[in-house]
Amino acid sequence: MGDQRHGTPALRVRDVVPAALCVVLLLGVAGCMGAMGGGPLETAPVSGAPTAGVTPEPSPSIVVSAPPGASPEATPEWLSGYVDQLSESKRARKAPEAFTNRKPLISCGEFVLGHGAEVPDEAWDCLAAGADAGAELVEVYPTIEGDPIINYYRVGPDIDGVEYFVDSTYDNFGSGEWQHLVCELGPGPGSAIVGDCPWDDAE
What we know:
Blueprint: H1 13-35, E1 62-65, H2 77-90, H3 97-100, E2 106-113, H4 121-129, E3 135-142, E4 148-155, E5 162-167, E6 178-183
Parallel strand pairs: 1-2, 2-3
Antiparallel strand pairs: 3-4, 4-5, 5-6
């Protein structure tokens, strides 16, 4: 029998060329994907991670309060209409520029009230506590004739007191206009946190 050698076989061109072509092709594909902004060369954002430069949206919580003594099942149907009018108002229906350009703030609640119902003290306390970080409270209440008046109370580090927007555009027996003023920050609990308001200077 002839002498058999078991050393490392010599590499032949026909073995090397296909492997080399595969490596070149893969590098080319990866380069194209990176240049086009996709593929493994681009780091995907982590789910739930905050995005720089994005302002948090307010967290509205609409609470419909029937008149005192009325059962929840007996809530007047017109209060549901107030909810729709509040939605229209927030889309800046005839609003002043100061309202349309307002900064989104965390919500202390949006209260749609029947005759005699009131915003709970906890909501006013929330507004008072938000003076440093920024907060907003919305109140919708009926006039004697049953037309809604919509009040926006806002506090924050850029507001010297309580910023106050009044939307009277749904009041058929009133001014039918918006008003904007900044009130003093009162010391008391509940609605007393809104101090004196310079109505003569209202815009």
